[in-house]
């Protein structure tokens, strides 16, 4: 299962609950209309929690995205100016190269965080694809928990790194290196939030409510009769 397909599944699941279990699905998915049972109503609190986390992360993701766009534009302009200055004036200000390096660091790590939320990172799922739906879900939960711990450790260590370089000054730009290394805790902190969202989604994602079959870009849902059977299992 690709990252985009998994993200599409998760979005469709949460939107289905958010619409109070009467979800107008797109043309690629057969619509399901049924009355909410007590099993669904018990999970309203969990769905509200997931929705709150999603809204917070959506705001953070949009802010990070536009910061990334601005930094990419600045880096492109500075790099282009370097080429013009070297070819026409035969002189390049020393701060330009350093500014490009610093912007590249920010763009790389911030872009990695934004890509994580979109499910765009590459992953090897050859072995996992042979597992049943339930095992896939538990494997995904275990992987996301490991990632959460990993990002948490990196966030803590990067904060220590920033504190260590507060009084270090860049060679040509005369700014604190802490502003450069701040890209690490910001990006890893965002990854922590996104990992928490994914873990909560996997716990709330009701294997007893609906099962999804992914075929390329098409998401199919089982009919209500099958949903009732799966909720008892």
From TrEMBL:
Residues 75-203 form the Tripartite ATP-independent periplasmic transporters DctQ component domain. Keywords: Cell inner membrane, Cell membrane, Membrane, Transmembrane, Transmembrane helix, Transport. GO terms for biological process: C4-dicarboxylate transport. It is a multi-pass membrane protein. Its main location: membrane. The keyword Cell membrane applies. The chain crosses the membrane at residues 63-83, 138-156, 176-196. GO terms for cellular component: plasma membrane. GO terms for molecular function: transmembrane transporter activity. InterPro entries: DctQ, TRAP_DctQ. It is found in: Cell inner membrane. The keyword Transmembrane helix applies. Belongs to the TRAP transporter small permease family. This is Tripartite ATP-independent periplasmic transporters DctQ component domain-containing protein. It comes from Cloacibacillus porcorum.
């Amino acid at each position: 299962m690709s990252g985009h397909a998994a993200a599409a599944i998760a979005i469709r699941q949460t939107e289905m609950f958010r619409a109070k279990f009467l979800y107008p699905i797109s043309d690629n998915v057969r619509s399901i209309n049924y009355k909410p049972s007590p099993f669904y109503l018990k999970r309203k609190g969990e769905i509200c929690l997931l929705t709150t986390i999603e809204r917070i992360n959506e705001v953070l993701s949009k802010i990070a995205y536009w910061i990334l766009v601005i930094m990419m534009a600045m880096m492109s302009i500075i790099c282009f100016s370097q080429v013009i200055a070297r070819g026409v004036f035969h002189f390049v200000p020393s701060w330009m190269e350093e500014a490009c390096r610093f912007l590249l660091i920010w763009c790389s790590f911030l872009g990695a965080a934004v890509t994580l939320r979109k499910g765009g990172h590459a992953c090897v799922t050859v072995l996992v694809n042979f597992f049943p739906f339930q095992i896939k879900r538990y494997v995904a939960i275990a992987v996301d928990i490991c990632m959460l711990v990993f990002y948490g450790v990196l966030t803590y260590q990067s904060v220590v790194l920033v504190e260590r370089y507060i009084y270090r000054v860049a060679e040509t730009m005369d700014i604190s290196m802490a502003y450069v290394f701040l890209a690490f805790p910001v990006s890893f902190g965002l990854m922590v939030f996104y990992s928490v969202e994914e873990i909560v989604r996997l716990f709330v994602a009701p294997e007893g409510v609906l099962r999804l079959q992914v075929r390329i870009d098409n998401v199919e849902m089982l009919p209500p009769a099958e949903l009732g059977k799966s909720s008892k299992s």
